[in-house]
Design brief:
The complex is a heterotrimer of chains A (281), B (366) and C (268). Chain A is an all-alpha fold. Chain A has a single domain, classed as MetI-like fold. Helix content of chain A is 74%, strand content 2%. Chain B is 25% helix and 35% strand. Chain B has nine helices and 20 strands. In chain B, helix 2 packs across helix 3 (114-127). Chain B starts with 8 loop residues before the first strand and ends with a strand. Chain B folds into two domains: 2-230, P-loop containing nucleotide triphosphate hydrolases (Rossmann fold); 243-357, Nucleic acid-binding proteins (OB fold (Dihydrolipoamide Acetyltransferase, E2P), Beta Barrel). Chain C is mostly helical and 268 residues long. Chain C is globular. Chain C has a single domain (70-263), classed as Orthogonal Bundle (MetI-like fold), CATH 1.10.3720.10. Classes of the chains: A mainly alpha (281), B alpha+beta (366), C mainly alpha (268). Chains in contact: A-C, B-C.
Chain lengths: 281, 366, 268
């Protein structure tokens, strides 16, 4: 109503703004600053030294880890989306309203279990003498080395992402106009083709954003690569924890962290642009 | 301007303008509302009627111009510092409070003691005949009962003016008529001013002492329902009322008490007494109401034209025949079913219509 | 839309849903089962039923200290995050201003930044301004991570509110503060409680930031990480199961509040 913000509006809006500026944006900006600092005698000193960037970017171990992390996250996003889609499609189109609401509730539960505990439990399932191999052994196959492998890492990441991806896909599928589907059937488009020609394009934004979230979660995850993938060779997150724990090389850890943020922002920007791109002129 | 305000008016709008961004919601509106008057502001959606009401309530601030309430200029005065309770279209009853608590709300905000609050709220609940529901949840009430709660909640502070924003639009026809009479008698009993915004002509005309018709942020006509119905000022009002046929032509010659008008569909006569401030050659627009149109199978009549039937609509005991002139103008004829029964009213058939030159009304604003 | 083919396809799709649920819940249920199992490293066939792991953690004073710390931090974080989130949600609901998108991005983005990076940034920043190492720093970090959840929950509730309710209260003589107290807060009350419980549950689970930021004042998840790094111990399962049960209790409370019919959304 008025041109100048009222005391009331400031009291409500500013606390969150100040909190997030002070404890979210500032720390991230501070990370940028310390990436140029130097470490002498195990002490960080303010400086403007590009040496940390040069040192990290010229190490082939960094680029190996970068490529590995990126591919793992991309694979996790793709596999999770592929597994999730038939499930979210079926929940959205084949189940009753009541069953759908129950499933949504059930899918929210994993968010409130410790990821770490789940990963520990998965170790028991996947180890050489674990549940899976014991089951397979009854049929006379195996044992397979499931733990400390890329397979193990991906299983962990998919456990982390699957509920979220199903939920996000589900919400976008629920918004698909049912008339479009019937119109497609009416125009003699068979069911299977309708899914790919009508439903997937209609829900594109939600599907892309679900995959993006899977990518973001997997890219930054360090629990699965460490405890299910064996931690060696490391991913970027493990690299950060290693660098921070071994002495005071925080500036270099900051370089790795900022590279990760840069990558995430680029991927997020590109996928959102892709998601919202309209066809036609 | 303030001193010119008559002591009888409680509201005065002086060149009031409201812009949302670059769009004019209300464009230079002037009018006064008398004490104890029931004023309806009528128009289609987006005409600025609700914005005008919200400016009176203090929910919007005018971009330009002045608003006076009871002699005091109230521009910029917060809605909670005014005494202009409003009844919302959605009713806006608080779902987390009981009926009684809803009615008490305005008193609570004014710091009235709990004992007095309860006493006054119950008095109003009784007046509105909903005392038995005092402890109910809002969601347990019917539409009409909710309506009464909203009225009690607004009136419990005993204001001098009540603002109503399409409060009856959600009710069915029967209940609507009943609530209209409740509102009318309530307004007469209390003797306070009601400002009633609606898009419905029947609501406005049946309850209001005066009606303001708005379109595109401007006032088209102010007057009593009879004045507006009998003598619409311009084409917009005539079209908005919807029951009249509109003709436009040029004055050609005056014979006795009649002017002859040359229109695209022919030449018509019109009572010269209805034409003021016009000379030969001037353009005039006049209306003939649908009931005053006469219709015959064929043959040319004085003051008549040949038309083609487009379709027919039944309205209770009467029917409305939609016809088209040779120039493509659309006309309506309203008659009893009996009168139409002798005619061929199938789409495409030709009929002759004519009317009495004394039944025309010339629009002064055109 | 009938025919055998459709029945087969629908059956397969439902089987797929079931398979996904098994995949998602196997580790969770597994953890429960293992926590009640006598074997140090369970496999098939399972060992016998035992409460020894629960006894071990209940006897461990460090676990108790960690637990109280977790609850303490969780309660304070819940209050802070819900207060901040409420302000943010109302701001988004009520106001339009230049830079609103930046405001919303700043308010809602923290959960998308990997916890490792958040932990690193916070540790570096907070140690610079001498706030690291204490319970205080954990609360600050959790406040950042949890307030977006509170904001989203309360914003969702506000979007169910008829905006005329607020105007009606102003119109009846309540100024903005009184309206906040007597209309907005009662209407959003279920969401406020849901936000309190859910942010507390998120704080329970948010271990990595805590691990980086806290020094000695370990919260329960940090303790779990300690177990993992050292010898593998099934005590984790017991702790995890207890934490899960407390989280779920909070969530069920939140759900019940959100669904309470007497405070349900207005019918429009």
């Amino acid at each position: 109503m008025s041109k100048r913000p009222s005391l009331f509006s400031l009291v409500l809006s500013l606390p969150l703004l100040i909190w997030q500026l002070a404890f979210f944006l500032f720390p991230l900006l501070f990370l940028v600053a310390i990436s140029f600092w130097t470490v002498r005698n195990f002490q960080m000193q303010p400086d403007f030294n590009t040496g940390n960037w040069v040192r990290i970017f010229t190490r082939s171990a960094f680029w190996d880890a970068y490529l590995r992390t990126f591919c793992l996250a991309a694979a996790s996003a793709a596999i999770t989306s592929a597994i999730a889609f038939p499930a979210s499609y079926a929940i959205s189109f084949k189940l009753s309203e009541r069953a759908r609401r129950w499933l949504i509730f059930v899918l929210i539960i994993p968010f409130f279990t410790s990821y770490l505990v789940r990963v520990y439990s998965l170790q028991v399932f996947l180890s050489d003498a674990g549940i899976i191999n014991a089951l397979l052994g009854k049929f006379g196959i195996g044992p397979f080395p499931l733990l400390n492998s890329t397979f193990g890492t991906l299983v962990g990441m998919i456990t982390l992402c699957l509920p979220l991806v199903i939920l996000l896909q589900l919400f976008s599928l629920n918004f698909v106009n049912r008339d479009l589907v019937e119109a497609a059937h009416n125009l003699r488009c068979a069911r299977f083709r309708t899914v790919f020609l009508v439903i997937v394009p209609s829900a594109k934004v939600g599907l892309v954003i679900a995959a993006l979230f899977a990518f973001i979660l997997s890219f930054g995850d360090f629990v699965s690569p460490l405890y299910l993938g064996g931690g060696n060779p490391p991913t970027l997150s493990i690299m950060i924890t290693d660098i921070t724990k071994s002495g005071q090389q925080w500036p270099r850890a900051a370089v790795v962290a900022l590279t990760m943020i840069g990558t995430l922002l680029t991927v997020a920007f590109l996928s959102i642009r892709f998601a919202y791109r309209e066809r036609g002129e | 301007m303030n001193d010119q305000m008559t002591t009888n008016s409680i509201v005065k709008l002086d060149s009031v303008v409201k812009k949302f961004g670059d769009i004019f919601a209300v464009e230079r509106v002037d009018f006064e509302i008398g004490r104890g008057e029931f004023l309806a502001i009528m128009g289609s959606s987006g005409c600025g009627k609700t914005t005008t009401l919200r400016m009176l309530a203090g929910l919007e601030d005018p971009t330009d111009g002045d608003i006076y309430l009871d002699g005091e200029r109230v521009n910029g005065k917060a809605t909670w510092d005014r005494d202009t309770p409003m009844v919302w279209q959605s009713l806006a009853l608080f779902p987390f409070l009981t009926v009684q608590e809803n009615v008490e709300f305005g008193l609570k905000m004014r710091g009235v003691s709990k004992v007095e609050r309860i006493e006054r709220a119950r008095r109003w609940l009784e007046k509105m005949q909903i005392l038995e529901f005092a402890n109910r949840n809002i969601s347990q009430l019917s539409g009409g009962q909710k309506q009464r709660v909203a009225l009690a909640r607004a009136l419990v502070t005993e204001p001098k003016i009540l603002l109503l924003d399409e409060p009856l639009s959600a009710l069915d026809a029967h209940l609507k008529v009943r609530m209209q009479s409740v509102l009318s008698s309530l307004q007469k009993d209390l003797g306070i001013t009601f400002v009633y915004v609606t898009h419905s002509m029947s609501e406005a005309f049946s309850m209001a002492d005066r009606v303001v018709i708005m379109s595109r942020g401007k006032i088209e006509q102010i007057g009593t329902p009879q004045e507006i119905y009998r003598e619409p000022r311009n084409r917009f009002v005539a079209e908005f009322l919807g029951s009249a046929n509109i003709f436009t032509g040029a004055l050609s010659r005056k014979t006795g008490v009649y002017w002859t008008i040359e229109a695209p569909d022919g030449s018509f006569e019109i009572n010269a007494g209805k034409v003021t401030n016009k000379n030969e050659g001037d353009s005039v627009t006049f209306i003939v109401s649908a009931e005053n149109m006469n219709v015959r199978p064929t043959g040319s009549q004085p003051n008549g034209i040949t038309v083609t039937v487009v379709g027919e609509e039944f309205v209770g005991a009467t029917a409305i025949l939609f016809v088209e002139t040779e120039s493509g103008a659309e006309l309506k004829i309203q008659k009893s079913h009996d009168e139409f029964s002798s005619l061929d009213t199938r789409p495409g058939s030709k009929l002759a219509v004519h009317w009495d030159p004394d039944h025309c009304h010339v629009l002064p604003g055109e | 839309m009938t025919g055998n083919r459709n029945i087969v396809i629908n059956g397969l799709l439902k089987l797929h849903i079931l398979a996904c649920l098994v995949f998602i819940f196997a580790p969770i249920i597994g953890s429960f089962v293992f926590s009640l199992n006598s074997d140090r490293f369970p496999s098939l066939p399972l060992g016998h039923f035992s409460l020894q792991w629960y006894r071990l953690i209940l006897e461990d004073p460090f676990v108790w200290a960690g637990f109280f710390n977790t609850v303490f931090v969780g309660a304070i974080v819940a209050v802070i995050a819900t207060t901040l989130g409420f302000g943010g949600a109302y701001t988004d609901f009520r106001y339009n201003f230049i830079g609103k998108n930046a405001y919303l991005a700043l308010a809602l983005l923290p959960p998308t930044i990997p916890v490792v990076i958040m932990g690193l940034a916070m540790l570096a920043f907070l140690s610079r301004i001498s706030l690291s190492g204490g319970t205080f720093s954990v609360i600050i970090a959790h406040g950042v991570m949890c307030s977006p959840f509170a904001m989203a929950i309360i914003r969702l509730r506000l979007s169910q509110m008829d905006p005329d309710l607020e105007a009606a209260s102003w119109n009846l003589g309540g100024n903005e503060w009184a309206t906040l107290r007597h209309v907005i807060m009662p209407f959003t009350k279920p969401a406020i409680f849901a936000a309190l419980f859910i942010t507390m549950a998120v704080s329970f689970d948010e271990f990595a930031v805590a691990w980086f930021v806290s020094g000695l004042h370990e919260t329960l998840p940090v303790k779990i990480l300690g177990f993992l790094q050292g010898q593998v111990s099934p005590r984790i399962n017991a702790i995890g199961s207890l934490a899960f049960l407390s989280s779920i209790t909070l969530i069920v409370f939140a759900q019940m509040l959100m669904r309470n019919p007497s405070t349900g959304p207005v019918e429009k």
